[in-house]
Amino acid sequence: MRRTAILLILGTLALGGLAGPSPAADAAPVLPRNTSWPLPGVPEVIRGYDPPDSPWGAGHRGVDLAGGVGDPVVAAAAGTVSYAGTLAGRGVVVVDHGPVRTTYEPVTPSLPVGSWVAAGERIGTLARGDHCPARSCLHWGLKQGQNYLDPLLLAPSNPAGGHYRLVPAAERAAVRRRATIRRTLLRQLPPATGPAGSHGFVDPVAGPVTSPYGMRLHPILHVWKLHDGTDFGAACGTPIRAPAPGVVVRRYSNAGYGNRLMLDHGTIDGRHVVTGFNHAASYLVDVGDRVRQGQLLGFVGSTGYSTGCHLHLMVWIDGQVVNPMSWY
Q1: Which CA distances in Å does 11 have to 6, 85, 86?
Q2: Which of 40, 47, 250, 310 could form an S-S bond across to 64 if both were Cys, CB 3.0 to 4.6 Å?
Q3: How do residues 177-196 score in pLDDT, each as one tens digit?
C-alpha cells in the first residue's frame, strides 16, 4: 500500500500534477507549430480524448495510437526531456515544450533527462503494456500546467496544407451533422463584409462596440475590474465569423464567459496570435478544426455573466491578453 502511494506521488510530480484546475485554466494554450506524429506514419487512433466532467472524474486524458512493440517513439515537437523512467511499472517519457508538455507511455526511453530533442527525433521505443487490452498502443498526452488538452491539437499538417483531425467512430455521425449544418447555413448567409485591419483581421460580427477594453464597474458582479476584451453589440443569433485563418484550440462552457471558443492563428507579423469568443449561443466548429477567414463559427448569445446579447472578443499576443482593437 505504501509503495503504491509513493508511485502515485512520483507519477504526479513527473507528469506535472493532477487534473485539477490551475490559475491559468482559462489561458489560451500556446502550442508548438512544427509537429510530428509520435509513431511512424499516420497511426490509427484507437481511443480519442475524452476529458472528465470534473477534475477527479472518469475520462480519457489523452489519445491511444495503434502501434507495435519495438516501434520507434518520437517527440511530437521540439523540447527538453523532463522525465524518462518507470512509473507504476510503465515506462514513461515527458517532453517539455515550454507552455505545454507531452507524455508518452509505455515507452522504453532512449535519452536521459535534460536531452534536447527536435520534432520527430526518437525518444524511445514502444514497450509492451496493458493500457489497450486488445492490441499494442501508445498513450499520448498533452498538458498545459495541470490541465489536460487534446493531443490531436498537435497533429501535423497534411501535404495539401490541411489539418488532420482523426475522429473516433462514435463521434463521426455528430461531426457529419455539424458539417452539414455549416454548409447549409453558409449558403443562406450573406458574405462577410468590412475592411481588414493592418494585420489582415476582420471584425467577427457586424455591430458597434458597446464596451471597450479597460477597467470598468462589472455590470453583474458590481466590482471594479479589468474588462479583458471588446464587446460588440449584436442580436442573439447573429453569425460569428473567423477574423482570420486559424485552428480551434479550445471550446467549452465557463460560468462567467459562457460558451467560449479560441482560435490559434499562429505567427502573424512576428507575433503569436490567439483570439477568443465568449457568451455565444452555440458554436458549429470543434477543437482541432481548421477554419478560413470569414468562416461561420457560431452565433451570438447571452450565456454566462451577460446582461444581453453580445460578443465579447478577446485577443492574446504572445500569450498575453491585450486590447483587441490594438490588433484589429
Answers
A1: 9, 10, 9
A2: 47
A3: 656 655 555 544 444 445 56
